[in-house]
Amino acid sequence: MKLHFDHALVTQLLAHAEAAKEHMPTFDQLYEPTFLKDGKETQSPSYDDIDAEISQKGCTSG
């Protein structure tokens, strides 16, 4: 199965996301050790436990 996206609309969506004043981690990022601040566990993390600079770059593990 191939998915097709309108390039102009995706570009608009990306610009909108990048311009956001706040970025919240995804649910998956809450449990990805790569994104956690030093000393935090992955059992019950909160949004405050996420290193926002790392999570915005995306996960390359797994």
In short:
Residues 38-62 are annotated as: Disordered. With 62 residues, the protein is mainly alpha-helical. The protein has helices at 7-18, 27-30, 52-57.
Structure explained in plain terms:
The chain has 62 residues and is mostly helical. The protein has a domain at 7-34. It has helices at residues 7-18, 27-30, 52-57. It is elongated, with a radius of gyration of 14 Å. The mean pLDDT is 80.
Ends apart, CA distance between termini: 23 Å
Radius of gyration: 14 Å
Number of helical elements:
3
The major β-sheet equals:
none
List descriptors.
35% helix; mainly alpha; 62 residues
How is the secondary structure organized here?
Blueprint: H1 7-18, H2 27-30, H3 52-57
